[in-house]
Amino acid sequence: MMTLTMLAELVILALIILFILNICRGRNSFGALMSVGVAAIVCGVVTGICILIFGTMSVVNRQWIQNPDKNYLSFSFGLMVMSGFMVLFEGFCAAFSAAQVRYDQKKSEEKPRYAGHMIKPAPPLYL
User: Fold this and answer.
1) How far apart are alpha carbons 38 and 114 in whole angstroms?
2) Which keywords, in A-to-Z order, does the entry hold (predicted)?
3) How far apart are CA 46 and CA 38, in angstroms?
4) If you placed Cys at 91, which of 8, 40, 51, 97 could pair as Cys (CB 3.0 to 4.6 Å)?
C-alpha cells in the first residue's frame, strides 16, 4: 500500500510541476486542479493510515518485521511522516487554487454591475 501511495505522490508531483511550468494547460482548469488536489488528499490520508499501522505494530509486536532487533523507527519513518503532512498540504493548496480558478471564471463571465450608468463629473465651483 505504501509503495502505491508513493508512486501516486510522484505522479501528482509531476503533474504539479507540469502545471507550474505551463507545459500542461491545467493551471487555469478547475477540473485538473481539483482532481490533483483530491488525489493528493487521498494519498495523504492513506499515507497517514499506513504510518499509524506501522508505528503501532512496531511498538506492540515487533516480530512481524524481519530481524526486529536491527529494525528501528528511524529517519525513514520520520521522512514518511513529513511526506504525509506535505502531500496533505499540497492537496489543500491545489483544492484552494481550483476554488480560486472557479471564482475567477465566474467573475469574468458575470455582467458588470451598473453597465451603461455613467457618473457625471461634478461641475466646478468658482468662487
Assistant:
1) 39
2) Membrane, Transmembrane, Transmembrane helix
3) 12
4) 40
Q: CA–CA distance from 85 to each of 9, 78, 105 (Å)?
A: 12, 11, 30
pLDDT band per the 50, 70, 90 thresholds, residue 108: confident
Q: Residue 94 corresponds to which amino acid?
A: A
Q: For residue 40, give the amino acid letter.
A: A
Handedness of CA 108, 23, 47, 86 (dihedral sign): negative
> What is the distance in angstroms between the CA of the first residue and the CA of the last residue of the chain?
83
Q: How far apart are CA 113 and CA 110, in angstroms?
A: 9
CA–CA dist 9, 98 (Å, integer): 19
Q: To the nearest whole number, what is the mean pLDDT of the chain?
A: 85
CA triplet 108, 19, 85: central angle to 5 degrees?
105
Give the Cα separation of 118 and 42 in Å (integer): 51
